[in-house]
Write a sequence for this structure.
């Protein structure tokens, strides 16, 4: 397991802590000495997804969270575009498809950096 994967797992566990244990402060402490800002951004993204799932349930914004996890995976899978298209194809309505299409734009930018 890479350092990034370990940090993501820890961040996801922190997201499950109750408010009185201050998960945001603990995440800040976890990442305070990190100098790789791209990796830190991905870890925070996974923390936010886990926090949202903890607050609203895994079914709320399920496809949005799947797409967010996909584009924040490093390195990107070779078939990330195909995976994202499969997620978009599952969208229930136009609004959700439109929101997911934004991830396709982000994926294009990430892929071509």
């Amino acid at each position: 397991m890479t350092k990034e994967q370990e940090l993501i797992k820890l961040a996801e566990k922190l997201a499950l802590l109750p408010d009185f244990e201050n998960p945001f402060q603990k995440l800040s402490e976890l990442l305070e000495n990190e100098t790789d800002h791209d990796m830190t951004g991905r870890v925070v993204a996974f923390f936010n997804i886990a926090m949202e799932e903890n607050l609203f349930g895994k079914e709320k914004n399920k496809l949005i969270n799947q797409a967010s996890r996909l584009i924040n995976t490093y390195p990107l899978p070779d078939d990330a575009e195909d995976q994202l298209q499969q997620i978009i194809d599952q969208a229930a309505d136009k609004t959700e498809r439109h929101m997911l299409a934004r991830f396709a734009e982000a994926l294009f930018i990430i892929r071509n950096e």
